[in-house]
Amino acid sequence: MLAKFSTPGFLLVLTLAAFRAYQYPDYCSDEFQYMANAVAMHGAHAPEIHETVYREVLAQVPENILNHLLGKDPVESPQSRSYIERASNPYSFAQFLPCFAVRPIFNEFVYVLHYWFGVGLLRATVLIPVLSYWFMGCIALLWISAYVPAIWAAVCCALLMLTPPVWDLARWPTPDALSSLALLLALYFILEKKWLTPGLTILLASVYVRTDNVLMAVLVLAYLSIVTKTIDKTKAAVLAAVAIGSVPLINHFGGDYGPRMLYYRAFLGVPMAPGVMVAPPFGWRDYMVALHAGIVGVVHEEYIPFALMGVVGFLRRPTPAIAGLTMLAAAYAAGHFLLYPLPEDRFFGLFFVAMGISMASTLVAVRARSLQPVASLPVASSISRTGLSA
User: Fold this and answer.
1) Residue 1: what pLDDT?
2) Burial of 115 (0-12, 13-18, 19+ CB in 10 A)
3) How close are the terminal C-alpha atoms of the chain, in Å?
4) 172-190 pLDDT per residue, tens
5) Residue 43 near residue 85, CB atoms below 8 Å
6) CA-to-CA distance for 57 and 235, rounded, in angstroms?
7) How far is CA 224 from each of CA 25, 67, 157, 239, 338, rounded to the nearest angstrom?
8) DSSP label at 277?
9) What percent of the chain has pLDDT over 70?
């Protein structure tokens, strides 16, 4: 009886969690830039873009959060000065658009929701991660259910999706939840279902959600061509070249300012006008300082418990699909951190979900041993043979 209602019960819990995230999103300045890029795609110029975005922001963002995002903090900082400049100067605000134009699929989704379906710009940036989170929960349930009974799959998946680093994905009005969804779905198709064509298509398309997903594309293609020998090395090399070549293509048409600006904004400071900065100062010494701070952040956050979940799952001899998921998600998280040592949970959504799936799926080993007849065990079989021969 409980098994019959386990999936509807899980979907109810997942829906309530998603709705709660929709009610209380974690508003941030990045969200304004995605809204602005959607308006720019409609053909608007800087003053119109600025007026459209801030009209919605002023009307819908709660006052206590709004004051911070407008630069009205009690203590002045480079960040607050930048927020003030962006809120008052349309052309300074427009200089930040290229930094976020390199997420074309997310910007397209905001555009479609707003201009085709009439969803407000602010609500559109909130709705996309909420829906992505909900679908991620469904995929995780399907994956775990392939290995454990329905009721245990529902319980494990509900606990996983309610953990803070996973649930927070739904609250960030950025492309991170959509990126995690695309990667998880691609890996589910490729590793579990063996549907290579749709899986690889989604994987390559994920580069257009976040360009750093090119790392996962290369890892998966190397895994399929070298470890499992599922695809030919030549085909894998061609697909890898397509994925890698997409990154400069996206950066070129998005008007990106280059990696130095990305690292400067993340680790050194918030520029007033990035479009006029020449060669932002960021070198190896700055990277090492950022890496040290990132390692400290990793040690004190949720990464170690989730990594241990993956270790437990891996040591219990999972199926090739789960083993591949665990190794690829861990390798992607480690590689991403080394390239961009900023330990924000939103960049590692796939890692958190994959480690949870890995451990939950190995419950089948416990169940299998508990249901296994005694006579079928190796020791019992040898005893039986010894008794018969005697």
Assistant:
1) 62
2) middle
3) 48
4) 999 999 999 999 999 999 9
5) no
6) 47
7) 38, 50, 27, 12, 23
8) -
9) 92
Distance CA 102, CA 338 (A): 21
State both tokens at 145: 């259910």
pLDDT one-digit tens code per residue, 47-76: 999 999 999 999 999 998 999 999 998 888
Q: DSSP labels for 73-99?
A: -SS--HHHHHHHHHHH-HHHHHTTHHH
CA distance 156 to 159: 5
Q: Kindly report the number of other CB atoms within 10 A of residue 284's CB atom.
A: 7
* Cα–Cα distance measured from residue 141 to residue 154, given in angstroms and rounded to the nearest whole number: 7
Q: Decide: residue 306, CB within 10 A, 0-12 exposed, 13-18 middle, 19+ buried.
A: buried
The amino acid at 189: F
Q: Exposed/middle/buried for 209, CB within 10 Å: 0-12, 13-18, 19+?
A: buried
Neighbours of 4 (CB within 10 A): 10
Q: Do residues 207 and 247 lie in contact, with contact meaning Cβ atoms separated by under 8 Å?
A: yes
Q: What is the mean pLDDT of residues 9-15?
A: 97
pTM of the shown model: 0.91
Give the span between the Cα atoms of 73 and 76, in whole angstroms: 6
Evaluated on CA atoms 116, 120, 121, 125, the torsion sign reads negative
What gap in Å lies between CA 138 and CA 131, rounded to an integer? 11
> How far apart (Å, rounded) are the C-alpha atoms in residues 158 and 10?
6
Angle ∠(156,191,239) on CA atoms, nearest 5: 135
Query: 342 and 266 in contact (C-beta within 8 Å)?
Result: yes
Residue 129 has a CB neighbour count (10 Å cut-off) of 31
- List Cβ<8 Å contacts ≥24 apart for 379-384: none
